[in-house]
Fold each of these.
Amino acid sequence: MKNIKNYIKENPILKYFLPLSSVFFLSYMFLSIPATYLPLYLSSKGLSSVQIGLLLSLVPFSAIAGQFFWGNAADKSKSKTKILMYTIILSLVISPIFLLANSFLAFFLLILVLFFCQSSTAPLSDAIAFEYAINYGIKYNPIRLIGTMGFAIMTVIAGFVAVKSINYIFIIYSLTALITIIPLLFCPIVVGHRKKGQKFNTKALFLKKDFVAIFLFSMIINITYGFHTAFFSIYFSNTLNAGTALLGIVTLLCTLLEFPFLFFADKFLKKVSIKPALLFFGFLCLIRWVVYASTSSLPLIIFFSIFQGISIVGINYYLAYYIANSSPPEGKATSQMFNAILNFGIARFIGCIGGGFLLPVFGMKNIYSFCAIIVFIVLIVFSIVKVDYKKIIRKNL
């Protein structure tokens, strides 16, 4: 083991790029499983749409607490890498316990604990990757692209495995999370920048008009995605009778369109500023909800699903870069976590729990119509609001 570590230290590509890209690939693999298949698993246990909505609303709610905790710990830690490892280890230990649960209360507690840990894995990985980009000259885009590949591959694998038994998704989750620890052991330590006694005031973010505007814009978009991620897999697999294997393929198609975007992201960042970019990505969201609201045609739904690959990753990509450039060093991880709390915490919570109660009353298509109207309004308002945005400094990011 010592000889291997010495060899890696003498080769920059092995020392920096290979370990972190491997972590992204594997972590995005296991993170994709509950994101796609947890609603189906809960449905297989006989839970109603209201119960599923309540349980899935715990995901962002738990993420709020978890991301505050882990983000703060990372900024103060001597090793952000070690904090990331803790979140992965705890997640892989908790996930198999789902196989023993059968009651609403048991799922309630398990979801709270699992997503308290898991929710910080992706933003912590991003924070570490941005540090690598700045300190070691390693580009973020290829690393993020490799993570996307892992996400895409696992959605298909899990989809075919779930055809045999939906229970197997938690076994795959734990095994993949366990393997993720191996390359993480070879990642150089990234130290938190917050000195002892130093504090980062997250309230200061609300005093910046640029942050407030993009957070509100992205939050409203993510409210609609909160509903979609909670109930689309059930609607697609059960109501439309498409099955989990085709669901995995559709998810793969959604993810594949991230590839060309990430390949050309540097040029895109150079030519398009943040406001018109967000408006473009938001418009793609609008198109998607309009189509879902107006048809039950599988070919059309599958075709327009590909817009997710550009729209949601584009919004998250621009936000992550903007935060990385505009936040002070002592609060970079906390700021990324705060962004995750707002967009994948509070916003997704509203979408999940609201959808759970509205679905039995209005049905899927009508709620997609509501989502389209909401996105249309936010696009108009955001285009009118005048806010000055800092130019994104690309460097090696």
Amino acid sequence: MRDHIISLSHEDREFIRRLLMALTQDLAASISTLATAVDQLSARIGNGGPQSGFSVSDANVQSAIDGVNAQTARLNALLPASNPGAPQISNVSPSSAPVGTQITIDGSGFGASAGSSTVKFNGMATAPDANSKWSDTQITIDVPNGATSGGLVVNVNGVDSNAFAFTVA
């Protein structure tokens, strides 16, 4: 299968990447919406708590989102890098967090120090601060105020990495 993927044009590979990202975001949003609906239904049935033996916890939702992100990372690994010199994200942990929470971005090509590099949360660029740590393979940064769910991207010297699905909880 990998041989067939490598033979795809650059435009086709980018289209597949964007499609995977959109599908991952849609699925994560659907899982969250479903969990909310089940919780509301459980409360109505059980007068404040599930009586019928079903409920959806935050841990269940997070587990489903983590599973989607793992599959997306696996599929992204099958695609050759769109720009071999571009930074690459391999994992974000946690993949869902509220504003102010510190997250870790693993990958490659981030550079030894941040310099003028940024991390983009669904297009909103944020520069590392005093709490951040930056190395060529790992970035630790706080989820900034105003961040929204969507693609998380590392920009190094004006070059964007692949996007990784991230949910602002």
